[in-house]
Amino acid sequence: MELLEFARGPALAASAAVCALGIAWRLYAIFRRPVRSDLSEPRHAEVGAAGWRAILVKMLPPKDVKVRGASMTNAYVWHIGLAVVVFGFAPHIGFIERHLGIRWPALPDPVMYFAAAVTIVGLLAALVERLTDRVLRALSGFDDYASWIVTLLPLATGMALIERPYHPQPPVAPALPTDPTLLAVHLLSFELLLVWLPFGKLAHAVLVFVSRWRTGVEFARKGAAL
Amino acid sequence: MTAPAAHPLDFDAPRFTIRRPAVRHDEQGGASDAERVARATQAFLRELDRSVAAWMESCVRCGHCAEAYHFYVTTGDPRYTPIRKLEPFREIYRREAGPFAWLHRLFWSKARVSAAQLREWQELLYDACTMCGRCTLACPMAIDIAGLVARARHAMFAAGLVPHELWAVAERAEREGSPLGATPKVLAERIAWLAEEHGVAIPLDRAEADVLVALSSIEIMKYPASIVAVAKILGRMGVAWTLRSDGYEATNFGLLSGNLEWQRDMSLRLIRAALACGAKTLVLPECGHAYGAMRWDGANVYGAALPFRVLHITEYLAEALREGRLKLRPLRASMTFHDPCQLARRGGATAAPREILAALGVELREMPPAGDANWCCGGGGGVVTMHRADDLRYRAFEIKMRQVEASGAERATTSCSNCRLTFDDGAAHFGWGRRIESLLELVAEQLD
Question: Most exposed among A107, A137, A169, B132, judged by the fewest C-beta atoms under 10 Å?
Fold first, then answer.
């Protein structure tokens, strides 16, 4: 079996399964716990929307509390950059359509290249900060560095592929990619990300909604500030 | 370390707690190290509900919480990063109850949490945490770090690893009904003295009353004018109210030290007293954590919805002003207001004191970031009780001094006697010529 064939076939299936099952297991570990009953008289009768509100409010920078400004800006930059690369790049949309059957218009390639470059620079800056800042260094462990590496790898290997514009029409896997080995490595790096995602902090991509929701609901009962 | 004589109260110091112990006893009982770890583990996991599990799973180690935290901002010491205080308990969670606990034990985890680690973390969980919750405002994952610290304190108490002073006052409260010597006998004597001195009726142990008023032992022993203020205001309003010697103490050192049983005992005394006199409203004193203990935890320790309302005194007064039952003369002064964290940020009663200040007609000069994001005074969570935490607390208090000065206000006020105590002690330490006043006492002075 060729490496690309392996990456597109069993490796992709296995990594996707690990990711899906791992996330499901991690969510189960939270949702199997009981919700603490609260018998206090709520300050506000309506707390139903509080979970959604917390999810949205916490997407914005905190209003009255100073945080690490440059660090937070950088986090916004590379999170948005990553989303643009994953969901805006034509080959990625083609990949998603082949596997999930949904598609949307792609962004121009130059925008993608810029977004990828910005994301990589942002990730490098985040690593430098984690290594040099006393607070972050004290908090960091294997998970933080492993998560950084598996996030960067697909970007780096993807950048190595962009030697020419790529317009899949129709959106099917190209029979003869420019460099099958490079494409295979890119896919495998993405699959490594999928495998690691449920085990470390990258799972915050999903857990962020649960955590914010729980706090939003509990705090709304009291009228406490988020 | 259980003999009460070993923990004499210090009535003379600006900060009211037990005298500085000659020899510290920051461990209780004679359990082995392994037993202490086992007890901490069991206690922490016992409270593992859905929210705790979600918060334990979600930290991305961004460090934003540090910047929101007075003890980090004023020391620059990364040990004080709020989420780091939970490190031993995160490890306990991951090894014992997390989704990949077996993998952690096999491959990833550091060594099991040790008693030495818990001892080291005692300072971080008690001395260096006022449980003010400001860190949650900065947390992108909305982790309730103060809520987790409360659970961690339960575990530390179970392990017998509570700081000397905090254990001593909590134990005294359980035994005497009050942490700072305000026994029923002392209360009765004080009330008789205050009633005579100020010519005001202070009802005690009425069989029936619409309103049961609870007090803070800090008020009883240090700021008794607050009791007079309540009596004047409620007397003017014509309210059928009472104090009860079987339930008057609102401070809850069971909550602060981490003993759920003692917390329950303190709360049940108040609840039973309110039920005994048929009170429709339980009015809590100017005390931040007392508000959280009863307003938000009271029904839960009682096991049913409370058949009476629970209001902080500022909420009660603001409501009376709204309904026209209370009239005030204007106070011609510029004032700033310090928000008690447990009342405002964590309690949701941020607006009430400002309604009162508006009714007083003062020129309110806020201390930005005022309200929900206000800086803690540094003495909450039982921190002001601990001599060992003084240096750290004073550093945090420098923020407050700067804020008050920057406001340009002539006078400063708050609605928490614990904050007042912290301000008085901080002012004495720095030789700062300012004092903070009780909002309740201001209202009493301006009765129309």
Answer: A169
| pLDDT for the residue B311 | 98
- The answer to whether B274 faces chain A, any CB pair under 8 Å, is no
User: For B351-400, what is each residue's pLDDT tens digit?
Assistant: 999 999 999 999 999 999 999 999 999 999 999 999 999 999 999 999 99
CA distance B79 to chain A (A): 8
Q: Is A139 on the interface with B (CB under 8 A)?
A: yes
For residue A183, the domain's CATH number is 1.20.950.20
Q: Which residues contact B156 (CB under 8 A, 6 or more apart)?
A: B40, B118, B121, B122, B125, B126, B162, B258
Report yes or no: B295 at the A interface, CB cutoff 8 Å.
Answer: yes
The reply to whether A98 falls in a domain is yes
pLDDT score for B110: 62
Chain A closest-CA separation from residue B254 CA (Å): 19
The answer to the question of residue A26 being in a domain is yes
Residue A65 has its nearest CB partner, among B81, B348, B369, at B369
Question: What's the average model confidence in pLDDT over A163-183?
Answer: 60
Measured between beta carbons, which residues in chain B are less than 8 angstroms from residue A212?
141-142
pTM value is 0.94
Domain with A197, as residue range(s), is 3-32+64-222
Confidence bin at B105 (pLDDT 50/70/90): confident
Region B159-186: mean pLDDT is 94
Q: What is the pLDDT of residues B196-213, one digit of tens each?
A: 999 999 999 999 999 999
Task: Copy the structure tokens of residue A223.
Answer: 């009228």
Nearest-CA distance from B386 to chain A in Å? 26
Query: Which pLDDT does position A180 carry in this prediction?
Result: 86
Q: Is residue A58 part of a domain?
A: no
List all residues 6 or more positions away from A25 whose beta carbon is below 8 Å from its beta carbon. A198, B99
Total structural domains within chain A: 1
User: Can you list the domains of chain B with their CATH numbers?
Assistant: 33-161 (no CATH), 169-321 (3.40.50.1860), 326-445 (3.40.50)
**Long-range contacts of A11-16, Cβ-Cβ distance < 8 Å, separation of 24 or more:** A11/A187, A11/A188, A11/A191, A12/A187, A12/A191, A14/A191, A15/A191, A15/A192, A15/A194, A15/A195, A16/A191, A16/A194
Site from A31, A44, A129, A135 to mutate, B interface, most B CB atoms within 10 angstroms: A135
Measured between beta carbons, the chain B residues lying within 8 angstroms of A19 are none
